[in-house]
Amino acid sequence: MKRLSPWTLGQLLILANVGLVGLAVLCVVEGAVSRLDTLANEQALTRVEAACAAGVREIDAAGEETASSVRLLSEDPALERLLRAGDLATLPGLLETFLRRSRISGCAVLLDGRAVASAGVEAPWEQVVALAAKGRDHFIAPPLIAPARAGAPLALGSHFPLASLPQASVVAVRVLDEGYERLVSSRVGLAATIRARSLGSKKDDPRDLIRARAVDDEAPAADRLDSASVYLGVAPLRDPAGQVVGLVETELPAASIAGPVRGLERSLLILSIGAAALSALFSVLIGRRLVVPLRGLTAASERIGRGDLATPIARAGGAEIGALAETMEKMRSRLLGLTAELRRRQAEAEGILLGIVEGVFAVDRERRIRYLNPQAAALLKVDPASAIGRFCGNVLNPQGPGGVRPCEDACPIIHARFQGSARATEQLLLPGGERRAVVITSSRAEPDGAPGARTPLGDGRQFQLMRDETEVEASRRLRDAVLANVSHEFKTPLAAQLASLELLRDRLPELDPAEARQLVLSMERGTLRLTQLIDNLLESVRIDAGQDSIRRRDVALDEVVEEAVELTFPLIEQRKQRLSISLPHPLPHVTGDAPRLTQVFVNLLANANKFAPAGTEIRIGGSVSEDEPVDRQVDRRAPRRARRGAPGPGHRLRRRDRSPAVRGPPAEPR
Asked: Relative to the CA of 308, which of 19, 194, 322, 531 has its CA 20 to 30 Å away?
């Protein structure tokens, strides 16, 4: 056997498994590393954006806290009492006490828009009040403390008038200085910076680019700064008028993200190397486990291919290979049994074909002879070897009317292809000039690749049985037909006579002379009927031989029915059955053979007597077409001869009607 590849199955399995696992691991690692980098960047950017948002929320919470403190100060009764008393010198002390209890950087009391007392940091209080008039109860103010100094911090401000003194109000600010930045950084988890919008104007600085994007979009912005190896997030801060006055910035070092990612990538690489090594080891083990039983199955299939069906196939381990080995063993056993069965059937078929009297030949789709048994060759007086491959019409040489071959119009082989089977009698002209009549029976053509065919010949083969139709054979069939007809036709009259004899024997002491005479007449008619049947059977044989002897005469159907009733009456009387006749009168005459019509009715009544239950009613009915007059229905108790007033069998039939076995009401016509 020629090898298709120098590699063995085990080597191919190892290489395939290692290659597939290595490729899969590399793809997974590459995709995982790329995805990890992407996820790390997204996580870092999300983190700095979340920190910026948290810083903005912290500033807003500080503004609400400042507003709450200023509201409490504006509601302080001591402040109102001092203002009503005009004690302005005591106000700074009250404000100092207020600053110590709150986180406010500075505050002031205003009368008619002018600061009359202050504490803490100094601020342009009139400007703060102007900002407060534009927005909510708390707001973000631009740098108020030494605004000329670079990097001056923003401030949170709040302003509330006194409820009882509308001309007086309290204003306070909380400076967002470095201390507050450290507080925000501790709360958001990242380094946070709060700066004014006007600071920084270098367009080539990547930080200023992110800041400008946040200011222009008025939304948080974040990006990675590769030059500084940090992730920067910027969120805008708005004043009461909605203008961006400051920025909250958070930074995340890139090293804090890259370090864990690099460690995870190293772990993935080590894991991929280990997986490749394990896959190679498992491939070797599995390859050995698979290859050894497969080699045995390959050797077994080669033995089966060489025709060695006697050697059993060893069982193999594993579910799939074990099932394959078991299936191959079952296949070998079935093939062995089928081979033995085919050989036996072949021997039987050869014995049958050689032992039968009839000739058998087979043709293909083009009606060329493919097989010819010795009997067919002897019948056709041809050499079997010379007949193979020839057109069957040239070998059989059938002669139709006028000497024309029936191969095109009346070929039984062609008819069998459409009808399932066909039979024809052919007159063959043998090579010596002798004519021979044969009966050819053809089977249906075998389809190409027919499913279930025991021998898929694939050429539409048909088999024909050819029987010699000689005078001796015709005489034998004629004799068989006569015997079959005799056994069939004599059965009913003999049964009727036997029933009459049984009735005569059982009821002789009870019968009056007229009834006894009736039974004797019935037996006499049965004997005459048997004589007539012999003549009819001889005529039927002549009909089968092609000689038509049917007598066509005027027939009275009521006489035919009456005669059939009289012949079968003993059988009906024996089974206690009732006979009802309902026929229109008069019935029109028909053309036919009266004795044979009588036999038809006798056979029908005999079958009804045989298969109808005892004690039931048997009905005979009839009708005529609408153009025939129907005077009245006729019951069997008024036979035709009795109606006409003439003596005859009708009188005897009426006497039988008095028997309880046949008494009953007339039936409806059928």
From this structure: 322
What are the extents of the domains in the chain?
Answer: 1-281, 356-448+456-469, 477-657
Judged against a pLDDT cut of 50, whether residue 665 lies above it is answered with no
Q: CB 369: neighbour CB atoms within 10 A?
A: 22
Q: From CA 171, how far away is CA 208, in angstroms rounded?
A: 34
pLDDT of residue 526: 75
3-state secondary structure of 437: strand
Instruction: Kindly report, residue by residue over 33-73, the tens digit of the pLDDT.
Output: 777 788 888 888 888 889 899 988 998 898 888 889 989 98
Amino acid 398 reads P
Per-position DSSP letters for 446-489, written without gaps between them: PPTT-TT-SS--SS--EEEEEEE--HHHHHHHHHHHHHHHHHHH
Q: Is there a common fold for 356-448+456-469 and 477-657?
A: no
pLDDT digits (tens, 9 = 90+) for 230-265: 888 999 988 777 788 888 899 888 887 777 777 777
**107 touches 73 (CB < 8 A):** yes
Helix locations, 545-556, DSSP H:
none
117 pLDDT exceeds 60? yes
586/629 Cα distance (integer angstroms):
8
Q: Which among 510, 22, 599 is positioned nearest to 276, based on CA atoms?
A: 22
Instruction: Compute how many other C-beta atoms are within 10 angstroms of the C-beta atom of residue 246.
Output: 24
Give burial (CB, 10 Å; 0-12/13-18/19+) of 195. buried
Q: Looking at residue 653, what DSSP letter applies? A: H
Mean pLDDT of the chain: 77
Please answer whether residues 230 and 193 qualify as being in contact, where contact means their C-beta atoms are separated by less than 8 angstroms: no
Q: Which fold has domain 477-657?
A: Heat Shock Protein 90 (3.30.565)
pLDDT band at 124 (very low <50, low <70, confident <90, very high): confident
In contact, 332 and 309? CB cutoff 8 Å: yes
Outline where 169-316 has alpha helix (H). 178-188, 206-217, 255-305
The yes or no reply on domain 356-448+456-469 and CATH 3.40.50.2020 is no
pLDDT at position 655: 30
Q: Can you say whether residue 584 is alpha, beta or left, with left for phi > 0 and alpha for psi between -120 and 50 degrees? A: beta
- Paired tokens of 134: 């534009």
Cβ atoms of residues 448 and 460 within 8 Å? yes
Least confident among 222-226, 295-299, 327-331, 626-630: 626-630
Give the number of C-alpha atoms closer than 13 A to the C-alpha of residue 467, restricted to the C-beta side.
Answer: 13
Residues facing residue 617 across a β-bridge: 578
Q: What is the pLDDT of residue 103?
A: 86
**Alpha helix segments (H runs only) across 356-411:** 374-380, 384-387, 392-396
Q: How far apart are the first and last CA of the chain?
A: 83
SS3 373: coil
CB 470 within 8 A of CB 442: no
Interacting residues of 116 by C-beta distance below 8 A, sequence separation 6+:
88, 91, 109, 110
DSSP 8-class letter at 403: G
Closest-CA residue to 80 (of 172, 174, 139, 160) = 160
Q: Rounded to an integer, what distance in angstroms lies between the CA atom of residue 388 and that of residue 563?
A: 63
Give me the mean pLDDT over the 607-618 stretch: 90
Handedness of CA 612, 614, 616, 622 (dihedral sign): positive
pLDDT of the residue at 429: 84
79 near 73, Cβ under 8 Å?
yes
Strand ranges of the sheet holding 578-585, from the earlier edge strand across to the other edge: 617-621, 578-585, 632-635
Contact between residue 372 and residue 384 where contact means Cβ atoms under 8 Å apart? yes
Question: Which of 662 and 47 is assigned the larger pLDDT?
Answer: 47
